[in-house]
Amino acid sequence: MAQTVQTVPESAAGVSEPARTETPELISGGHLVAKALKAEGVDVIFTLCGGHIIDIYDGCVDEGIDVVDVRHEQVAAHAADGYARITGKPGCAVVTAGPGTTDAVTGVANALRAESPMLLIGGQGALSQHKMGSLQDLPHVDMMTPITKFAATVPATERAADIVSMAFRECFHGAPGPAFLEIPRDVLDAKVPVEKARVPEAGHYRASTRSAGDPVAIEKLADLLAHAEKPCVLLGSQVWTCRATEAATEFARRLNVPAYMNGSGRGTLPPGDPHHFQLSRRYAFNNADLIIIVGTPFDFRMGYGRRLSHEATVVQVDLDYRTVGKNRDVDLGIVGDAGLVLTAVTAASSGRISNGAVKRKAWLEELRAVENEAYQKRLPRQLSERDPIDPYRLVHEINEFLTEDSIYIGDGGDIVTFSGQVVQPKSPGHWMDPGPLGTLGVGVPFAMAAKYARPESEVVCLFGDGAFSLTGWDFETMVRFDLPFVGIVGNNSSMNQIRYGQMQKYGEPRGRIGNTLGDVRYDEFARMLGGYGEEVRDPADIRPALERARESGKPSLINVWVDPDVYAPGTMNQTMYK
What we know:
globular
């Protein structure tokens, strides 16, 4: 209960004056939410306004938290996801009730599959109107529970900050992921005495979740490495999530282990590093005697584990115990932080008479020969002068265009499948893609988040024309907030990844059903919204156009017309469905 203090001053004549009551300091639910966000280190929210949530804005202004307002709630959720990936801090999106929250569902689901820590706050009708049919009332928590690590209603104003901190604790338990809170309007708007509200202190309400793994398992892996002649390691997204770049690099170099990278793990080792491999992965998985998978589940990207040799010893390291051994048996499973585990294994291996590094020289040379052969085979297409433009030429030019500090984002189907074979980020944390949910439309919101979080870095985003169409109107948000980036649309007027599958299944006459788009001039769209735009039809013009986009200092779209009848190998193999 709020305490009041009564004072009874005396007049000069010794006559008592009437008692005065001090008014307790009051705080609203929205301001409590903002205080909890500030305590977690959140410095920006991505949002689309609604009457249910505006008191949070008022609190954010007082706490110095920026408010970036977008044109669609899906964009807000994707931007929160992207911000978490770039910074390592949780992202936050705030949306209104009903359709505001349902519009954000896709962004939350994408963050779940990508293991990205973000908090979505949704509005809700007043508790006093519960089950009365209030405006935009839906069972948000029931809807969000299957796609979050934590979903709850804030039941009282006094609990607002407390439950926000509870949601953040859950975001970082095990493998990271999203949380959802709905806050009824009367809970958010009400004011309570400050001393009645629990406001967790920054740095004092959640524990470290970093685990170095079972010491016995660490020693066993060190022993396996000491005896392996042909090991390889796949460094997945959790290597970046755990900020384990230094540990992974030291592991590969000290123990002479060839490293492959996928997802956000791309860029862990720079291109040109003798332990950096990309094009020989299938060969390595078929011929290795020890395969170490770090921070990557055995999902469709790994053929559910079937792409690993049955003769090899397989070790899996992951933050989530539920991932280890799922879909494929493993010889050794270690649950822990990628950086701590790899550091421990390197240390355990280094203390041995032989860690096996010297005898692996021939294995690395064998893989490098396979790598070089694959590169030379594809190089003519990367340098092709064909018209229409070969997609390999486009992604080659993009790869050559990237600097050491260019953050690369891929948003699309077939065109981004091409880029995955060619584009090599030159630094850790400089690759972003949707992740295993395969969500199209992440490009603009990821670019927004990346440029906001790292204004000094260049952001380069390759879109498929279909992907850009889903969230492209928030290009205007990029202009409005002065967030320049270099955008490229690989335009074939088709959803080509689906088109190829249809033709193979139903024949050419039905290959254009439901997957053909108009010939849209995205360069003109960019200029209409205040950005920079160019159209490219000649492959020789790609690089100059990219340079002009960089120099413009504006959000940009280079509309590159690519051959609609050329498909990426992954598309032709339909590997995503196998």
